[in-house]
Amino acid sequence: MQRDHTYHIWPRDLDFIFAFRAIEDFALKRGMILDVNMRPEYDLHLNKYEAAHPDSFGEFLSVLKQSSGFDSFRVRLPFLNTKNSEKITFRVIYDSGNIYIGIYGSDDDTIIAAHDFIRKEWRLSNPPIHKREEGRPRNLQATIFLGKHFDAESETPSRVLRQFLELLRFDVQEADEYRATIIPDKVKKLIERQDIYVGLVTGKRDHAWLTAEAAFAHGKDRHVIMVIEEGSDFNPTIQGHDYEQIRFPSKLVEKSFIGLMQEFRSLGISGL
């Protein structure tokens, strides 16, 4: 049986020497010793130019103690109880973004206990998992078509909104110019290619272009979100559609960002 956990939060002052000694103590208290016949592994990348590959657990701890820092490491620690042949193997991978703990063994209860022990001793945790709301679209990709007006009034809010979406790692596509006629095939293909349509509505004026884009996206089963400046006269129900709406005060599109984040979390978008 193997169980894996990945953690994204740990103490800034985590003492890895103490942490690995804690793993060793967990095994020793259960009558287990390091199984050198199963070839433990120790690999450290001290920086992008230098790596170390200790031959023993003691050497590994010594390198950790002597080094001023390291970029990453990969460690495999197999333990064995020679009396009853019980085995447990710890694989620990550290890099700048996460700590991975994989534990393999012959007793699942011991594996669960080991994970709980490491999580407590190392003080590891993760950001909360946001539950997807029932009745919302499922399995949406982080892809957005951003609809907007093509004029000076819309230039700044659309640029700020796009920057926010890209910081969230969305792939954002836009039309390259305004057309007063029907939606061009090129724009239709861009909308069809993205899972989400976000329409940015600013000012009191004719919003027929955005209404048409939103209706087309809705007709293609894309999730439609309208980000609407207060005071605009946009009416999304004119074609019988009641889209998700997030409103923001005049000239302050950034006030929509919390609402957008809440909407994205409720959708359970892949990768966010």
- Characterize the overall form: elongated
CATH topology-level name of the largest domain: Rossmann fold
SS elements, strand count: 12
Distance between the termini: 30 Å
Helix count from the secondary structure assignment: 7
Roughly what fraction of the amino acids lie in strands? 15-25%
**CATH class division of the largest domain:** Alpha Beta
Describe the 3D structure.
The chain is α/β, with parallel strands linked by helices and 272 residues long. The chain has two domains: 2-122, no CATH class; 143-267, Rossmann fold, CATH 3.40.50.450. 32% of the residues lie in helices and 24% in strands. It has seven helices and twelve strands. The protein has helices spanning 16-28, 57-66, 108-122, 152-167, 185-193, 208-219, 257-267, and strands spanning 2-7, 33-34, 41-45, 51-52, 72-80, 87-94, 99-105, 143-147, 171-173, 196-201, 223-229, 244-248. The strands form two sheets. Strands 1, 2, 3, 4, 5, 6 and 7 form a seven-stranded antiparallel sheet that branches. Helix 1 packs antiparallel against helix 3 (108-122). The protein is elongated and about 80 Å long. The chain starts with a strand and ends in a 5-residue tail after the last helix.
Offer a concise description of the structure:
With 272 residues, this protein is α/β, with parallel strands linked by helices. The chain is 32% helix and 24% strand.
